[in-house]
Design brief:
Layout lengths: L1 H4 L1 H5 L4 H8 L6 H21 L6 H20 L4 H27 L6 H29 L1 H22 L3 H7 L10 H5 L2 H7 L3 H20 L6 H26 L1 H19 L5 H33 L5 H27 L3 H20 L3 H9 L6
Helix pairs in contact: 4-6, 4-12, 4-16, 5-6, 5-8, 6-16, 7-8, 7-13, 7-15, 11-15, 12-15, 12-16, 12-17, 13-14, 13-15, 14-15, 14-17, 15-16
Organism: Rhodococcus jostii
Pfam family, one: MFS_1
Protein name: MFS transporter
């Protein structure tokens, strides 16, 4: 489920230059197409936060798959920008529900190994992101409606399979465990400084995804290298699929703080270099490294920090909702801002992300405890209220 729900997001990447030509869009509006998917995540996350009763993870995934199927079907029939955006919004809404339900379902299946399984969940997201550009490349050859209709049938089949699986005694027992929902005290958490600091490192990988998935296809098409778009993003996703579980082990070993500070420094250097790229090869290599390796480390470290901090504050399920919420906000911002800023100056969006990485790295180094300090703190037995 985690792999499938990101497939439609990546499928748009090879199609962007063709959509721009077919609909006669200005480059500054292309970010709307990429950002519409992540904008759909917002109401999904907010709905899970505001619902008054806890609900089953399986039910959340089931509803999410339904929205993904409807979104793909709408996109397949789209002949104008508003219908296309409506399809992308529905896909994003379904993706947000699937991520919240499936990631929590996966993490709670192995108590004590949350960091490793959180990394595994990000690896599975990368698998889906690899399938997405491949589907987009197929859509160029076979037609976008055909490929999105196939995706619709795939999600419908997953719904049927999930319904059959849910009938088993083991799954019925799991369905009674209701963990996604309103027991997260949202207002209380957002007033906690430690929780806000834990969320901050999620900004940079989200901005990076929104920017790179929007600008890189346009830059490669402008250089006459449109045929390499799918291959670059597939390579990044394949590497990310392997890097996700490894990132979980690395973060558990060296600590979230060290991982975030080092990767923020690497992000700064790479985005600063992309402000004035040497050529398509430089653009391709930097994109693969950022999406395939650095973003995996950042997302796992920041996500694990969010989960642990939320647990300490009495809300153990925060990562299943706040992580996709942060990605929804800042991927959308990265996609829309990147094309607008690039219209002013081509280097501006890359410099902006590099500056955010510097600020985030500095904040993390100053405010987040080192692994040894945290371990010492966690070893103290705290009496309950």
């Amino acid at each position: 489920m985690l792999a499938l729900q990101t497939t439609p997001y990546g499928a748009i990447t090879p199609l962007l230059p063709g959509i721009v030509r077919d609909l006669g869009l200005a480059d500054s509006r292309v970010g709307l197409i990429t950002g519409a998917f992540t904008a759909g995540l917002l109401p999904a996350c907010l709905a899970l936060m505001l619902i008054r009763r806890p609900i089953s993870d399986i039910l959340v995934v089931f509803v999410g798959l339904g929205f993904l199927a409807v979104g793909c079907l709408t996109f397949a029939q789209a002949s104008s920008l508003p219908i296309l955006l409506a399809g992308r919004l529905a896909m994003g809404f379904g993706s947000g529900l699937c991520f919240a339900g499936a990631s929590r379902w996966l993490v709670k299946s192995a108590p004590g190994q949350e960091g490793l399984f959180f990394g595994l969940s990000w690896g599975m997201l990368s698998v889906g992101t690899a399938v997405g550009p491949a589907a987009g490349a197929a859509a160029i050859a076979l037609g976008s409606p055909f490929v999105h209709n196939v995706l619709t049938a795939t999600f419908a089949a997953c719904l049927a399979v999930l319904a059959l699986i849910a009938m088993s005694p083991q799954m019925r027992q799991m369905a009674r465990t209701r963990t996604v929902g309103p027991h997260i005290a949202v207002a209380t958490l957002l007033r906690k400084r430690t929780f806000l600091i834990a969320l901050t490192p999620l900004i940079v990988p989200a901005l990076a995804i929104g920017l790179l998935f929007t600008l890189v296809p346009l830059l490669l098409a402008a250089d006459g290298q449109e045929q390499w778009i799918a291959a670059i993003f597939i390579a990044a996703a394949v590497i990310g699929a392997g890097a996700g579980p490894v990132a979980g082990v690395v973060v558990r070993g060296v600590g979230e703080r060290t991982t975030i500070v080092v990767t923020m420094a690497a992000t700064t250097v790479l985005f600063a270099s992309l402000a004035w790229p040497i050529g398509p090869l430089h653009l391709a290599i930097a994109t693969i490294v950022i999406l395939g390796i650095i973003n995996q480390l950042l997302a796992v470290a920041a996500g694990e920090t969010t989960r642990r901090t939320g647990t300490e504050l009495g809300a153990p399920d925060t990562s299943s909702i706040f992580v996709p919420l942060m990605f929804a906000l800042f991927e959308t911002a990265g996609a829309v801002f990147s094309t607008r800023a690039a219209a002013v100056h081509a280097a501006l969006p890359f410099i902006a992300v590099a500056a955010v990485a510097v600020a985030t790295g500095a904040l993390t180094a100053r405010a987040m405890p080192r692994k040894r300090e945290r371990d010492d703190r966690d070893s103290v037995v705290v009496q309950p209220f």
